[in-house]
Amino acid sequence: MSTKFLIKRIYKIGELLALAGEVKSGVIKEGDTGTTWENKRFTVVKIETKDGSIPTASSSQEVTLIVKGILRKDLASGDTLYIE
After folding, report:
1. Domain ranges, ordered by start, for the chain
2. Are 10 and 77 in contact (CB under 8 A)?
3. Which class would CATH give 3-71?
4. How far is residue 47 CA from its own chain's centroid?
5. pLDDT at 37
6. What confidence score (pLDDT) does residue 1 get?
7. Measured on CA atoms in the order 45, 49, 50, 51, is the torsion positive or negative?
8. Model-level pTM?
């Protein structure tokens, strides 16, 4: 079963995207891959909280995912991502 992540805010960091939002179910780890609702694939490079970087994020946590392999135009606030 894949983890669900709700995007609340999106911004660019060089070639990467930062996706601020909430883990709706499951657990996300650095290195996990995921897809958008349009089947665009991406990789989680880093997970950050207001207190710094963490290796995993679990259900109901507010985090920022730093991701690669996807473009800003592929996402919108309010989208749900599916991470495996």
Report:
1. 3-71
2. yes
3. mainly beta
4. 8
5. 82
6. 66
7. negative
8. 0.94
The residues, ordered by sequence, that sit 6+ positions from 66 with a Cβ below 8 Å of its Cβ are 13, 16, 17, 18, 19, 44, 45, 46, 47, 48
Tokens of 60: 């109901």
Are the C-beta atoms of 24 and 59 separated by less than 8 Å?
A: yes
**pLDDT tens sequence for the chain (84 residues):** 689 999 999 999 999 999 999 999 999 999 999 998 889 999 999 999 999 999 999 999 999 999 999 999 999 999 999 998
- Please tell me the distance from the alpha carbon of residue 76 to that of residue 1, in angstroms, as a whole number: 23
Residue 42 pairs in a beta bridge with: 34
Question: In whole angstroms, what is the distance from residue 21 CA to residue 43 CA?
Answer: 16
Structure tokens at 33: 């891959």
